[in-house]
Structures are given as structure tokens and as C-alpha cells.
Amino acid sequence: MQQRIWVGIGVAALAWGTTGVATRAALGDGFPPFAMVTVRAVIATGLLTLLLRVRRHRFRWDRKTWTLGLIAGTFQLSVPFVLFTLAYQHASAGFVGLLVALVPLATAIMAHFRLDGEAMTTATVAGLLVAFLGVGFLLVSGDSGLGDGGRPLLSALLSIAAVTSIAASSVYTKGREGGFDPTELTWMQFLVGIVLVGSAMLVAEGFPSCAAPWCDTPGTGAISPWGWQLVVYLSVVGSVLPFLLYYWVLVRVTSTKASLVGYLVPPIAVLSGFVFLDERLQPGIVGGGAMILVGVVLTDRAERQRAPALPI
Prior knowledge:
By secondary structure, the chain is mainly α. It has one domain. It has 13 helices and no strands. It has helices at about 1-15, 20-30, 35-55, 65-85, 95-100, 100-115, 120-140, 150-175, 180-205, 225-250, 255-260, 260-275, 285-305. Helix 1 packs antiparallel against helix 10 (about 225-250) and helix 2 runs antiparallel to helix 10 (about 225-250). It is globular and about 50 Å long. It starts with a helix and ends in an 8-residue tail after the last helix.
């Protein structure tokens, strides 16, 4: 079971780690940020609906289930998706990916006060502190991975707000483990995302002239087939797959251990940005990333000392 959990964490991290590169590439192709998130939510909802139909899943329409779906759809998906997408406009995929490392820190702090049996140990605090110092080093350096064209402070503020939203939603969801189906919850949060982000798109960007790949979108020229392929990748690999895996892991381990996926995203994001987008490996990114990886090891060792959670 532990091996399967780590495989799930690893695949989810790989999927989310390459999301930044695909997002920045799609933005460069002219895809507006709110429209991009909305299209991702629509495609993901369609795929999940098909999956649930194949499984002959019986939906629960009670208030408790939909309250959880509304909260997850708002704070686990809509708010972070939009904020991270906006952050990618001002810094490299590696820079934003490194800030994802704040997710375990924020989650551990919130879980310490809100969840039974997840009090932070001295070893956990030490590991999280080292990772946090790595992020601090990144911010102090002023490196964005884009050279002079980046706005690292703005990107950091957007990313930190997204991280806080994810951590709060994860702790809330963990407090209700056993009371939700991972696939159903993922479907609900994307459905909520269509409504929330779609409404924001209409206000911020207007309504697209049509949905076909060759049509113009607000404020841009026609989106190329490559741009649409990137958004499909973001929908399937960057959205549906990692969310399903994350919730599957979340009901089997502590919320702090599940959030370790956020520690694995940074090196993947930095490497993929360097390889595919020619992003710069600046001193702040390299130094901060190294400290974050040290924090990963320390936090993992602390988590292994906990009594393992029973499979659900």
C-alpha cells in the first residue's frame, strides 16, 4: 500500500509539475487566462462525467456532499487555478513551481490546529522550516527565471494566495474523510469551477466569438491548434489525473503527507521549464530549490515516524 501511495504522489507531482510549462506556452500562444481555466474545467467535467457513467456511479445529492463540493470547487480549484495562471504571466514555471512548496507548510500549520492526530512534531517543524527558508531565499534573490522581464513579487503574492487557498481546502476535506468519493468530488469541483471561472471570464475577457480552434478569442488573434492541444493536456494530465490521485492519497494518509506532492512539483517544474521553455536557472532558483529539497527529506522522515493510517 505504501508503494502505491508514493506512486500516486509521484505521478500527481509529475502532472502538476509540467502544468506550469504548458500554461506558459498556451499563454504565449495567445490563450487568455480566464478562458484557459474555463475550457480546462469544461473538458475535465466532460471526462469525469463519462468516467462516472461508465462506473454507473450513483450521485449523492444531499446538502453535506454538495457543500464539500462547493468548497473544494471554490478553494481547491477555481481560486488557485486562476491565481497560478495569472502568476505564470510574471515569472517562470520554475519560480511558481518552487512556491508550490509552501503547500505542505501551510497545510501542516492548519492541520495542527484543525485536525486530530496531526500535531506537528519537532522533526516536522524542522523540515518545513528548511523548505520555507528555501522559498524565502528565492524571494529575497529577486530572481524570476525570466531575466529582467519578470515581476517576481507580484507572481509570489498571487502564488502564496493560491497556496493558502489549497491548504485550507485540503484540511477541510481531510476532516471529512470517508464521507466522499474521490471521483465524484473531483467532478463536483470542476463543475463548480465552470460556473465560477466562467462568470469571471465573461466579466474580465468577454464572451468568445465561438469555441472552434480557428476562432478569435477576446483581445487576441486566433488560437493555433498547438495552443488547443496544450489546453487539452492541461485538462487531462494537468487537472483530472492529479486531482483523482491526490484525493485517493488524501483518504489514506495524513493531509501533511499527501501535501508532500507540493514538494516534488518544484524540481519537476524547474527542470521542465529549463528544457522546454529555455527558462533561466538563476542563483535564487537553484539555491532556493536545493533548500526545498532538503526540507522534503526531513519532512518525509518525520512522516514515516507516524503510525501509518489504515487503508480506507
